[in-house]
């Protein structure tokens, strides 16, 4: 009975344009502010919530029924829930999965995530699609009793996503290593801008000793580590506010270190090559985003979570404005023609705007980890052959 009564506590979602949606309190009580965005995944809510890329965002689930499979420790993509707030239509009243260790409500309350349920999430989604992602707030408990004027003022005083550098909030504070599984092929340095656990595991499964670095790592420290390759992870925030990471990448590229980037890493490679980035109206978030691989002609259904994109010529091969040789757009979105991947033709570097680890999501893009592995193996074999030929002369 206590649980049913608590679910009836009122809450309100307030958008910065003044639109209000009344509902019921869900998760922690209080006030939270962030950028309102929607995610279209039908499954994988735990992976979404624990993805550091969602830091600073109030995430609305378009799937109507959330929480029925509970949560467990195995499917965590980081050590905690990162979303600023959570919006659902119908939270499950019971947990009915044999892998569940606790309810979603438990974790939302433990991590202090203020949420709201019982609103028409379709209406909110249509509004965001029409007017773009915007600042928002969820108010429950004592904060629900604030006047509408006070609530709207709080929302409008919040920080906009454009211009924010959030990597310091989500990155590891200490360097750590995940050893290679099976035959070891080398070391990859992963710049943790909000990396997911599954990404690190997939790299280790392909024979890499994975050295995960804090986002504060310097060029000198990277040179001292001397990795066989560099990887930039996904992460939250505006790529234009991460110039230090762009400069670090440019230094690494000039040294000849192979590079692979995903999501935020794609945007930072774009900027390192000399292209601009821009904010999308409402972003791509979900596990059903269609992408064309121009190299193979295949269409992939991908997992995505990004609000910014690279501004690069879609057609043909162009010269990198920053002097890194020829570059082509390797992947494009079939929904809106947004750049979804970059491939360098004169240096060993490529990136994609989506999440090939797809946790949760389709596995169409897992081959990218193999492509990265093959690139390093080929480079190592070429270097070994050149050394052998030099010694035989």
List keywords for this structure.
seven-stranded mixed β-barrel, 11 helices, globular, eleven-stranded mixed sheet, 393 residues, alpha/beta, disordered N terminus
Largest sheet composition: 11 strands, mixed
Shape estimate:
globular
N-to-C span: 85 Å
Radius of gyration, in Å, reads 22 Å
Mean pLDDT score, rounded? Answer: 93
By secondary-structure content and strand pairing, the structural class works out as alpha/beta
Write a short abstract of this structure.
The protein is of the alpha/beta class and 393 residues long. The protein has helices spanning 2-7, 45-49, 104-110, 121-131, 148-156, 167-170, 197-205, 219-225, 243-254, 264-273, 367-392; strands at 10-15, 20-27, 31-39, 57-61, 65-66, 85-87, 90-91, 114-117, 134-140, 176-178, 186-191, 208-213, 229-232, 259-262, 276-293, 299-311, 317-319, 326-333, 339-344, 349-352. It is built from eleven helices and 20 strands.
Element layout with pairings:
Blueprint: H1 2-7, E1 10-15, E2 20-27, E3 31-39, H2 45-49, E4 57-61, E5 65-66, E6 85-87, E7 90-91, H3 104-110, E8 114-117, H4 121-131, E9 134-140, H5 148-156, H6 167-170, E10 176-178, E11 186-191, H7 197-205, E12 208-213, H8 219-225, E13 229-232, H9 243-254, E14 259-262, H10 264-273, E15 276-293, E16 299-311, E17 317-319, E18 326-333, E19 339-344, E20 349-352, H11 367-392
Parallel strand pairs: 3-4, 4-6, 5-7, 6-8, 11-12, 11-13, 13-14, 14-20
Antiparallel strand pairs: 1-2, 1-9, 2-8, 3-9, 10-12, 15-16, 15-18, 17-18, 18-19, 19-20
Helix pairs in contact: 9-10
